[in-house]
Amino acid sequence: MNLLKLIFLFLLLLLVQVFILNHIHFRGYINPQIYILFILILPARIPGYALLLTAFFTGLVMDLFTDSLAIHTASTLFAAFCRPAVLRLVTAGSKQDSETDPSFGSIGGLSLSIYSGIIIILHHSMLFFLEIFRFTEIAQTLSRIFQSAIITFIFVIIGFALLEKRAGSQSR
Amino acid sequence: MRNLLQFIYRYHFFLLFVLLFTLAMVLNASRQHYKQAFIWHSANTFSATLFQVRANLASYFHLRHVNQRLLEENAKLLDRLEENFVVAEDTTRIYYDSLSQRRYTYTHADIIQNSVTRRNNHITLNKGRDHGVLPDMGVITPYGVVGVVKAVSSNFSLVNSLLHSETMVSVKIEKNGHIGSLQWNGENYRIVEMAYIPPHVELEEGDTVVTSGFSTIFPENIPVGEIIDWKIRRGETFYTAKVKLHLDFNNLAHVYIVKNLMQEEQEELENHASPDI
Fold first, then answer.
1. What is the CATH number of the domain that holds B208?
2. CA pair distance A64, A60, nearest whole angstrom
3. Domain span holding position A47
4. In this structure, are B63 and B152 located in the same domain?
5. Which candidate, A7, A41, B142, B240, has a CA 20 to 30 Å from the CA of A110?
6. Which portions of chain B are predicted below pLDDT 70?
7. Residues 19 to 58 of B: which have CB under 8 A from any A CB?
8. Do B147 and B237 fall into the same domain?
9. Structural domains counted in chain B
10. What is the CATH number of the domain that holds A124?
11. Which domain range does residue B28 map to?
């Protein structure tokens, strides 16, 4: 993926998140956060500082559009910080080195799912704890994290599949 | 010096993370001071304008519903017109007291940004300081309480929705006048909790809950919802009742901002009389 495509993807995810998904509420409060796909899909070769700055900027833009001051920034940053370690973890057993970009084709469906799942759980945990910031409501918070993470996970996997299909048909 | 630079270079990923994360946390902490943080909220011109465009588009899809509500409101107001009443006895005459003072004024506003999914939900309205909106004004519809204005910019205002942990509304049960306080527990956005109802009060399913008018923010007798369940929680001596809201926060589009012309006077007296609190 080149830079232009990434910028296009960023804008697309922003629009989908702000104008569609932020208005979808499963069971009243479950709100998918598809924009995390942007952090997940960044090339593996991206330097550390660029990864963190990208995450910071992505989160900040989300905060600007959702009235939530800096909680998206902090949680996206946290997800980006954990990303290299998680990516190394899921690609360790396989023959591919950790330099391959995360996608179905490169690291396989199972590894991709584990990788996305861990990052999404980390991101959502940070997001909901920062938002609620009360330990008296911990059971409710955990159930929110879990339920929202599942929905986001489904959206992210669909996102990966669609992008890959598109890229595949273009190269042919 | 060289060692330090080497150290920074070696751990730059971690150090940069700590730096940016601290920055985010500082921003997050400043959320309490709404006025300083205001630039980050959607009431800042750029995103507010975008949301206004979306709200304009979306409002077309609600027109039928909104018209229906307006008709109902109109019917209610027509019902109160003087012409509808015949004087039953001609020995008494009604004079309107010219000394009566106006207490509340209303401004209508459109919602351009709203949410129901978070623990603390905010609403952005398209009226601001230039339209006479000030912090601590109430926001209502004829079907219930919406929230309290928290901060204003010149053309927009930010409202703490009823679905916010800091919003508390003084309410009463319509049939017997017993008061309690209304707060959202963060679960279902259609249901809020009314706390501090004494245990001797007889409650029934379907009892209407209205605003008490005790606070300086909301006028009296705005319907809020109906009681669906109540119990005494462990370790407490009061009933906590579940109240189903008449208002569906998810499809709100038009609201009224209430200005209480006597707010300052009442607050001044209350603060003056009870300096301990």
1. 2.40.10.340
2. 6
3. 3-171
4. yes
5. A7
6. 30-47, 82-100, 274-277
7. 20-21, 23-25, 27-28, 30-31, 37, 40-42, 44, 46-47, 50, 54
8. yes
9. 2
10. 1.10.1760
11. 2-32
B158 touching A (Cβ < 8 Å): yes
A113 HSE (CA, 13 A, CB side): 6
Question: Nearest 5°: CA angle at A160, between A88 and A10?
Answer: 95
* Residue that is written with structure tokens 């499809």 in the block: B251
d(CA A126, CA A4): 30
Are residues B142 and B257 part of one domain? yes
By residue count, chain B amounts to 277
The beta-carbon neighbor of B20 closest among A25, A77, A134 is: A77
Give the pLDDT score at B36. 45
Per-residue pLDDT tens digits for B135-191? 889 999 888 899 999 888 888 888 999 998 888 999 999 888 899 999 998 888 889
What's the structural domain count of chain A?
1
Task: Give me the interface pTM, i.e. the ipTM.
Answer: 0.78
- Stretches where chain A sits below pLDDT 70 are 1, 27-29, 67, 93-100, 133-136, 166-172
